[in-house]
TrEMBL record:
It catalyses: L-threonyl-[protein] + ATP = O-phospho-L-threonyl-[protein] + ADP + H(+); L-seryl-[protein] + ATP = O-phospho-L-seryl-[protein] + ADP + H(+). Belongs to the protein kinase superfamily. Ser/Thr protein kinase family. This is Receptor-like serine/threonine-protein kinase. It is found in: Membrane. The chain crosses the membrane at residues 455-477. InterPro entries: Bulb-type_lectin_dom, Bulb-type_lectin_dom_sf, Kinase-like_dom_sf, Pan_app, Prot_kinase_dom, Protein_kinase_ATP_BS, S_locus_glycoprot_dom, Ser/Thr_kinase_AS. Residues 507-788 form the Protein kinase domain. It is a single-pass type I membrane protein. Residues 1-41 form the signal peptide.
Length: 818
């Protein structure tokens, strides 16, 4: 940019008769400098240099900024806070006046008071600060406030700013930055908390918080209203918290970017984390939904990426939806709703993500008032709320009568025994449970019943007949259009569907097959013949959160659409209407995904025989080999895991879900891309930020192959609080020559031990620390087919560390579970 501007200046002077700049231009330069000078970034607040209005302090390295901000443009509330300065998303990391917003920043200012404290003054109450550092014993005019490149605001000695008298890192908001200590001062009893915002547009303290266990143990707990604990990390084991294997300390590994440690001294206890260098931006945050989240900024995508969160399900957060709210966990995205007969108590806050006020009744109960009695609405398949009181009742009717007989009873459940709830219902989960609950409502909520029931039924039936006739004509027309479209399809090409087409194919997306991070999948049916006599089942995936433009979306879809391999899911068509309606149509796999058969030990799933497992391993390897070596463009899948391996009616494997796939031309051996994939299957090079190759898929395949052999997740928590890591167990069994114990116990020993040994050797080779040592997928295919012998693999460095439970956490770089 400078060179371009310089070039323009040279052309200007060369076309002029002056040998030096004209006086009027000199004046313009001087005026410009005078205008710019007051806005030059500084990082310090002093007695004679307050901060007010639109002024901003910027840390010396430019990483963080301090100033006034307005979280909601529709309100008149202003706050003094710190945010990231170099990224487009100005994420706030600390707020001074969370409980005392300002109305006019132009008349307010941050300054050093007469007693040496850093204070925030409201122009209307200039003599009484609305926020102060409140440090005693400071000499007059001896301090300054400085914003550091760590995001820490400090009150320091003016003559030596390394002498810190107060710092924001001792007074966290909802965010915990690298370098900060989250713990307890044992001498003063002072505890540092992370407290969530009330809503995404309201930084005032919310209901959810994180702190070191008040009872004195080394675990961290999350609480509702600073009282009700709903999650704990488990105690520190010397390198990790027992219930959080994802949060791994990696001090001993030079490849890792992160340092985690728990410190317990005579005067203080705290947890500490840091990032090596300036490679990535990370933060812990207690979200308004009550989850603790570890986030990393991905610059190329201009977004924060979630590495992990606790509790795993937001529906495990106590009272996340408030009183009489119901949490429905649909895939990985929970949603709060109100029970039938209730509406949000505070609609505006509810829409902003603050559900803590819960829901209120639409109509009051008629307990003891005579007239029509209250009735019950029964919800099936729920997880019951907290606070149920067991009473004696011989039947469901007796249980209902017992509830009606008590004015404070709001619900009952009879599942062999009778449970009654009095007062508010808290933490009710509305899906995936095995119980039912009956909610007490006013009789007016059932206005459609009673004397008008027959009339309503008659009108409804008549209406249904008319609507059915119209719909039948509509479907006939649409079916003919689809048949014509099917006839026009060229073999090997894709069909471009309209959104209306796919609504009809899926019956308005009524039957959901599953879901994941990039969308939900619905069951559908396409005509397979022009006369409509035969149909083809399909799976329609609604993409969510896809950031790419339509041109790029179509280019990648057309590339994937040309893939034809027996072990790769076949893409039949797509829909793209604007930025929000993007769908993919795949062939449907009747036996679902591999993870259901490996990890779901219920009676509804079949235990896969060893022969079937071995063929699945071989099929996936062949599919990946095709993607890596035999396509026109090399395709790196980037998310190989059991959930993305689908099984057809013969249990043949098909690699699916190319939502994260990366296309790479044949002229390139590696590609630099944003981090993508699933924790537990990521190769080390993802974490180090180096360019990836097809060997990233090889690593993920190896991790999946271990799970295929054992029939369990690679990382499992034991009842004693420890953690089992199966890959290190398998490696040890290979060395000892006793591989039989590695096989899924459900097989009862029915397995070809030669194939088991071969599979375990391949898996160990695939997860080697260095990508150059890992085999290609073509070599994996040859080994599994028995065409090539394989030597005993060296034990990966991470496995050696994991051989000792105390050193389990050092596996960070080889199994990136952050």
């Amino acid at each position: 940019m400078a060179a371009t501007r310089g070039g323009r200046r040279r052309r200007l002077w060369s076309s002029s008769s002056f040998s030096c700049p004209p006086p009027f231009l000199v004046m313009l330069v001087i005026i410009s400098c005078l205008l710019v000078a007051p806005s030059l970034a500084v990082d310090t607040v002093a007695v004679d240099r307050p901060l007010s209005g639109g002024q901003v302090l910027v840390s010396k390295g430019g990483k963080f900024a301090l100033g006034f901000f307005q979280p909601d443009n529709s309100s008149q509330h202003w706050y003094m806070g710190i945010w990231y300065n170099k990224i487009p998303d100005t994420t706030k990391v600390w707020v001074a006046n969370r409980q005392a917003p300002l109305s006019d920043p132009s008349t307010s200012h941050l300054t050093i008071s007469r007693d040496g404290n850093l204070v925030l003054l409201d122009g209307r109450r200039a003599t009484s600060p609305i926020w102060s550092t409140n440090v005693t014993g400071i000499a007059v005019k001896s301090t300054v406030g400085v914003i550091l490149d760590t995001g820490n605001l400090v009150l320091a000695d003016a003559s030596n700013t390394s002498v810190v008298l107060w710092q924001s890192f001792d007074h966290f908001g909802d965010t915990w930055l690298p370098g900060g200590k989250l713990g307890r001062n044992k001498l003063t009893g002072e505890v540092t908390h992370l407290v969530a915002w009330k809503s995404y547009n309201d930084p005032s303290p919310g209901m959810f918080s994180l702190e070191l266990d008040p009872d004195g143990s080394s675990q961290y707990v999350m609480s509702w209203n600073m009282s009700r604990q709903y999650w704990s990390s488990g105690n520190w084991t010397g390198g990790m918290f027992s219930k959080v294997p994802e949060m791994m300390a990696s001090n001993a590994d030079p490849v890792s970017l992160y340092t985690f440690d728990y410190v317990d001294r005579d005067n203080e206890s705290y947890f500490y984390y840091d990032v090596k260098g300036e490679v990535v931006l990370t933060r812990f945050v207690v979200d308004v939904t009550g989850q603790l989240r570890f986030m990393t900024w991905v610059d190329s995508a201009s977004t924060w990426v979630l590495f992990w969160s606790e509790p795993k399900s937001q529906c495990d957060v106590y009272s996340v939806c408030g009183a009489f709210g119901v949490c429905n966990a649909d895939g990985s995205i929970p949603a709060c709703g109100c029970l039938r007969g209730f509406t949000p108590r505070r609609t505006k806050e509810w829409l902003m993500g603050d559900h803590t006020a819960g829901c209120a009744r639409n109509a009051a109960l008629n307990c003891g008032g005579g007239g029509v009695s209250d009735r019950f609405f029964t919800m099936p398949n729920v997880n019951l709320p907290d606070g149920g009181l067991i009473v004696t009742a011989a039947s469901g009717h007796d249980c209902e009568v017992a509830c009606l007989g008590n004015c404070s009873c709001t619900a009952y459940s009879y599942n062999g025994s009778c449970s009654l709830w009095h007062g508010e219902l808290i933490s009710l989960r509305g899906s995936g449970g095995e119980s039912s609950i009956s909610i007490r409502l006013a009789a007016s909520e059932f206005a459609g019943d009673g004397n008008t029931k027959k009339l309503v039924i008659g009108v409804t039936v008549a209406g249904v007949v008319v609507v059915a006739a119209v719909v039948a004509v509509f479907l006939l027309v649409r079916r003919r259009k689809l048949r014509t479209k099917a006839l026009r399809r060229v073999e090997g090409s894709l069909t471009a569907f309209t959104y209306r087409d796919l609504q009809m194919v899926t019956r308005n997306f009524s039957e959901k097959l599953g879901g994941g991070a990039f969308g939900s999948v619905f069951k559908g049916t396409l005509p397979a013949a022009p006369d409509g006599t035969t149909t083809t089942p399909v799976a329609v995936k609604k993409l969510e959160g896809v950031r790419q433009g339509e041109k790029q979306f179509r280019a990648e879809v057309s590339t994937i659409g040309t893939i034809q391999h027996v072990n790769l899911i076949r893409l039949l068509g797509f829909c793209t209407e604007g930025a929000t309606r993007r769908l993919l149509v795949y062939e449907q796999m009747p036996n679902g995904s591999l993870d259901r058969h490996l990890f779901d030990h219920g009676s509804s799933t079949r235990v896969l025989s060893w022969d079937t497992r071995y063929q699945i391993a071989l099929g996936v390897a062949r599919g990946l080999d095709y993607l890596h070596e035999k396509c026109r463009d090399c395709i790196i899948h980037c998310d190989i895991k059991p959930e993305n391996i689908l099984l057809d009616d013969t249990f043949a494997a098909k690699v699916a879900d190319f939502g994260l796939a990366k296309l790479m031309g044949r002229d390139f051996s590696r590609v630099l891309t944003t981090m993508r994939g699933t924790v537990g299957y990521l190769a080390p090079e993802w974490i180090t930020g180096t360019a990836i190759t097809t060997k990233a898929d090889v690593f993920s395949y190896g991790m999946m192959l271990f799970e295929l052999v054992s029939g369990r997740r690679n990382v499992e928590q034991r009842q004693d609080g420890g953690v089992d890591f199966f890959p290190s167990t398998a490696a040890r069994m290979l060395v000892d020559g006793d591989i039989k114990g590695a096989v899924d116990a459900r097989l009862g020993g029915e397995a070809d031990l030669g194939e088991v040994e071969r599979a375990c050797k391949v898996a160990c080779w695939c997860v080697q620390d260095g990508e150059a040592v890992r085999p290609t997928m073509g070599m994996v295919v040859q080994v599994l087919e028995g065409l090539v012998d394989v030597n005993a693999p060296p034990t990966p460095r991470a496995f050696k560390v994991l051989g000792d439970q105390a050193n389990y956490v050092k596996f960070f770089s080889a199994l990136p579970s952050l």
